[in-house]
Each structure stands twice: as structure tokens, then as C-alpha cells.
């Protein structure tokens, strides 16, 4: 997936004159393998403008909440509805905790919503390692990682409220 192309489309969603064309570009791309992990890479990149990172975070949150759960085709239809590919899911699982830790607050909020949905559907069956990952960052000597890891822990615990 070409990151620059995604960045330009996300940037276009901010400009009212380019919004419709940019949204069409994103709607044609979101089913391509590596699109969702590319959004996460854009979100955590310090080299991308903040409004673009925020747009990517919102788009990823919407994708995860809508397309993360495995869905069956409606009765009488043979075509399965779109789900985020398992390889993409694994890349997101592998990097979202670090993304939450490294992101500014306005982006972190969107990523914690993603994490909540992922934990809801994947913990513990597909993602038992999330506990160890959160524990690792909570025990870190770097106080900068504590807030993000506590937010992750809260999302994990909130699942069982």
C-alpha cells in the first residue's frame, strides 16, 4: 500500500473542495490488504501532519468497529461481507499498544476505541499476548509509557465490567 497516496487522500478529506474525491479514493482502497496497518503507520508517524494523523485515526477506528468482527453472509447469499484480513489484524494487534503509548491525546482517544473493539472480539482467543504487552510497558522505567499502557489496561478490564 502506498503511504503517500493514503496520506494525500486523508489530507483531501480535510479540504471541503477535495473531500468527495478523497473519500472515493479511500472507499476504493480500504479493502486492499495492508490498508488498515498503513493507517496505523501514518497515525504513529511524527513526519505526518497532525490533522492527517487524526483523520487516519478516525478512519481506522471506523474500520475496526465495522469490519473487525467476522461476519457470515446473509441467508441465501454466497458472498461473504468484507472483514479486515487476518494478516492486517495481526499487524494491528502487534502495534496498537505502542501506537497508543506514542500518540498525542487526540489520536490516542481514537486508538483506544480501536483497542476496545479488538479486545472485545479477540481476547483471549486470538490475542492472549496483549496482557504481557501491557504488563511490559507498565513495568517500564519510562514514565512516558505509563499513561498509554494504563489506558490499554483500562480497556482490557472494561471488557469484563
UniProtKB/TrEMBL annotation:
UniProt keyword list: Nucleus, Transport
InterPro entries: ARM-like, ARM-type_fold, Importin-beta_N
Domain Importin N-terminal: 22-102
Name this polypeptide is given: Importin N-terminal domain-containing protein
Main location: nucleus
Domain of life: Eukaryota
GO molecular function: small GTPase binding
SUPFAM superfamilies linked: ARM repeat
Compartment(s) of residence: Nucleus
SMART domains the record matches: IBN_N (SM00913)
Gene Ontology CC entries for this record: cytosol; nuclear envelope
Example GO BP: protein import into nucleus
Organism: Gulo gulo
Pfam families for the chain: IBN_N
Amino acid at each position: 500500500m502506498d503511504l503517500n497516496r493514503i496520506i494525500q487522500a486523508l489530507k483531501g478529506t480535510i479540504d471541503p473542495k477535495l473531500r468527495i474525491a478523497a473519500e472515493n479514493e479511500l472507499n476504493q482502497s480500504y479493502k486492499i490488504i495492508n490498508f488498515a496497518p498503513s493507517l496505523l503507520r501514518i497515525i504513529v508517524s511524527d513526519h505526518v501532519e497532525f490533522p492527517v494523523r487524526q483523520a487516519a485515526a478516525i478512519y481506522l477506528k471506523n474500520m475496526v468497529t465495522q469490519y473487525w468482527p467476522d461476519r457470515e453472509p446473509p441467508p441465501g447469499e454466497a458472498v461473504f461481507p468484507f472483514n479486515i484480513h487476518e494478516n492486517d489484524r495481526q499487524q494491528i494487534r502487534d502495534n496498537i499498544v505502542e501506537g497508543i503509548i506514542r500518540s498525542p491525546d487526540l489520536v490516542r482517544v481514537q486508538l483506544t476505541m480501536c483497542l476496545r473493539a479488538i479486545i472485545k472480539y479477540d481476547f483471549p482467543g486470538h490475542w492472549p499476548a496483549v496482557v504481557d504487552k501491557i504488563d511490559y510497558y507498565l513495568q517500564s522505567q519510562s514514565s512516558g509509557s505509563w499513561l498509554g499502557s494504563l489506558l490499554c489496561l483500562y480497556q482490557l478490564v472494561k471488557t469484563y465490567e
